[in-house]
Amino acid sequence: MKLRINTGGVSFVCTRAPEQRIAFDTGQPKLDRETGLPLWQVQVMALDSTGGDVITVTVAGDPNVTVGQPIHIEGLVALPWSQDSRSGVAFRAEAIRASGAPLAGVVAAPRNASPSGVPGGTSKPAA
Asked: What segment(s) does the record annotate as region Disordered (predicted)?
């Protein structure tokens, strides 16, 4: 069952670079059954007058958004699931689009950065 979510009064900000969803068994990108487009996961912060929550939203096609960027989510639905003794809620959207420039002061580490934040660097002090 898909539960449509009213996003009126909610602001969204991308909090992690989008990642392509990969099939565990094949290692290949997961594809949307209807469009054939690759599925992407986007971690976002949802903010309203009561506070904020971080959720992960799946969307078909590259959302082309960056960390710290305000975004607009179209057609957001919640999909309750249960498997074995586990259960949860997955979120899916028809589209995710940038709605402004990245917020000032928000910096994402390069994907190939070491724990120190410097590509090829070390988190240990030099001797």
From this structure: 107-127
